[in-house]
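User: Here's a chain of 371 residues. Predict its fold as tokens.
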Amino acid sequence: MHRFSPRLRFPSCVTAFAFAALQCLPACSSDSDSNSSNSDSSCDGLGRTARLTTGGRLKLNREGAFAGADVSVIVTGESQAFLDETTLVIRAGGPASSDSVTIDCGSHGKATIDIVVTDPVWTTLAAWSGDEGPVAREYFSMWLDELDPNRLIVFGGFHYVPKQFTPSSDMWRFDLAASSWTELSPIDAPLAPGARVAPIPGSSAAYLFGGGVMREDGSLTTAPLLTRVDYGSDAPAFSPAKHDVGLKSSYTGSLIYDPKRERWLSVCGADAASSRGINCDVDAYTPDAGWTKVAVTGGDIPGRYGFQYAYDEENDRVIIFGGETTTSEASGDTWALELGEEPPRWVQLMKSDAIGTKRRNGAFAMDPDGG
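Assistant: Prediction complete.
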């Protein structure tokens, strides 16, 4: 039996603003289309100035003279360029740098792309007080409406009032266009701080998975939970998911929709209700078959919870960063679970640097443009 107790440990970004709706500027912009093609007989038209935030990318399709076999690229500065048969991808380097990428098409000319790299910028979308919006909280669930991406849903978590680690099941909707909150009236909503959410494609519905359960002595344990929430109205309805046989508990783990195989994946997490404890097991769910364990190969990824994760659809893989491991320390390593391989394979992308950034329970999202 494993016992997990909430602890007062917050990243500085959380203590700075508690809960706020924020927006990061796009990772990539340029003076011309960042996902453009070139069908001319010359490569001269590829020249441009691209303005990228740190880590952002510029993607160019190879057509016309740019598709020739004798094309090469030369990079000056900290940025990187990746050339294959169909595309050129330029990845921005460090902050506040001025780089360039020269495209040499042989007899069809040359072009230079100047790269201006800047730091990402935060912009406040809304500020509120009292009952104008949700109170400060942690370990909540949030997601964008599958049918209306201008609507952000916030559910539950731990409130700080009347004391820290007070479980809640309140639900709010934020209108990104109007910058306003609406309190919803959920039906049969569970108390599930630390639960994860994944969309049910094509509907204003999602699965809520896992979460913690408070004991009478104030400590935290886990219990199996998979519930469907239909949130299209002002009275979202929670109902048990179909065929949840094999369901295991998970606290601040993950729930990811795998569109290529039409299933939902639980990857890593903390399970205090069984001998699994802090783990990196992989389980798959479908409404028809319930839960099944997924055999994986590859690197020996340490068990963890409270990590950041995303599904990289372009490369068909799950990316996991940081979290708290079995050593009870925050980690800064990055792993990929390659779903396109059979069986799926763990690959370590970056090691945890002793002097680098380590994160536990941070905010996260996949930026498909920045890749």
